[in-house]
Amino acid sequence: MSKAVVSQLYDSEVFRMACKQFDSAADAINLPDNIRDRTKYPRRCLAVSIPVKRDDGSITIFEGYRVQHNLSTGPAKGGIRFHEHVTLGEVAALSMWMSWKCSLVGLPYGGAKGGVIVNPRELSLRELEHLSRRYMQEMIHFLGPDIDVAAPDVGTNEQIMAWMMDTYSNHVGYLVPAVVTGKPLSVGGSEGRREATGAGVAYLIKHYLIDMKLPIEQATVAIQGFGNVGSEAALALSQYGAKIIAISDYTGGIYNPKGIDLKKALAYLSYAKVLKDFDGGEAISNEALLELPCTVLVPAALERVITEINAPKLKCKLLAEAANGPTTNAADKIIEQRGDIEIIPDVLCNSGGVIVSYFEWLQNRQSYYWSREEVLSKLTGILDKAKASVEYQKRKFKFSRRLAALTLGIARVAEAKESRGLFP
Question: Which domain holds residue 117?
Answer without folding.
Answer: 13-175
